[in-house]
């Protein structure tokens, strides 16, 4: 009996050591994976997509108009070609929004949705959003291509989706589900995100962990000209202290961008916190981060063209958002909402122009 007990003890020690080594190995593999798949996001691919998405062919992507229909087809075809499914139904990537929802002033339009199902907590949802529309054609016939606003955010979401898909194919799929949400009607009053949140949330809002919203991340504003890479972050601490801390930790560990919180001030006269699609999640007590490069002289002008994008900055910013989403999707516990009702409701959405 003593010999058996000693053998059992030795076996237990060996198993324990092996288990510990496997956990450390898995952790190391996980850390290696996020960097590996972040590097699949490249300036060259972002540039190639944006030169198409913000071309004259798309006629400024005004909500309900033919150019916007070309835009949603482009997005759908991208997801189909990368075998990233829709959460609505097989082959159906469009969340239809009727003309009546726009108070009769805009033709019917569509959000575009794709997703990757979580491997362990599929019912919990990480939303990565950007608006697919822009302001269309000016009265004098000039096309407002909207390369930065929000072509940059749109192609960033596409690249992030590709990176998560590559990870999934290699056995590193996210624990939580990732929803890639391209919303329409932002420029006219945040209609697409409002429709998703208020009328038809494909995934229950109670199960939605966070919205990472990307709206203009391809340029440099006058304040930061000639400086290092940066981003304005808005809303990261409004509802979840934990989200803000994770965001800071990811940046310091992997990127070390300058995070500028100027527009996060509750007294910011620009009121950007209320002026992009994350707001429709925040008002439902869902933590958000709004990623933004600030305005510039080409904002809402025909001169917002792809040749003026800083693709090196865009690449790093997109990798940052992907890495943050990776952490939020794969951590053991969902982030805690510890500051409910911290947002300040407004009676109307701030117009973008």
CATH superfamily descriptor: Zn peptidases
User: Can you count the helices?
Assistant: 8
CA-CA gap between termini: 83 Å
> Domains counted in the coordinates: how many?
1
- Summing up helix and strand content along with how strands pair, one would put the structural category as alpha/beta
Q: What is the CATH domain class?
A: Alpha Beta
- Residue share in helix: 25-40%
Task: Give the strand order, joined by hyphens, for the main sheet.
Answer: 1-2-4-3-5-8-6-7
Rg of Cα set:
22 Å
The general outline is: globular
CATH topology group: Aminopeptidase
Query: Strand percentage, roughly?
Result: 5-15%
Which architecture does the CATH hierarchy give at level 2? 3-Layer(aba) Sandwich
Element order: H for helix, E for strand: HHHEEEHEHEEHEHEH
GO molecular function: metalloexopeptidase activity
Protein name: Peptidase M28
Pfam families: Peptidase_M28
Signal peptide: 1-22
Give a verbal description of the structure.
Residues 111-322 form the Peptidase M28 domain. This is Peptidase M28. It comes from Neotamlana nanhaiensis. One of its GO terms (biological process) is proteolysis. Keywords: Signal. With 353 residues, the chain is of the alpha/beta class. The chain has a single domain (37-330), classed as 3-Layer(aba) Sandwich (Aminopeptidase). It has eight helices and eight strands. The chain has an eight-stranded mixed beta sheet with strand order 1-2-4-3-5-8-6-7, sandwiched between helices. Strand 6 (230-234), helix 6 (241-255) and strand 7 form a beta-alpha-beta unit. Helix 1 (2-38) packs antiparallel against helix 4 (147-169) and helix 2 crosses helix 4 (147-169). The radius of gyration is 22 Å and the shape is globular. The N and C termini lie far apart (83 Å). Mean pLDDT is 91; it is low at 1-15, 17-29 and 345-353.
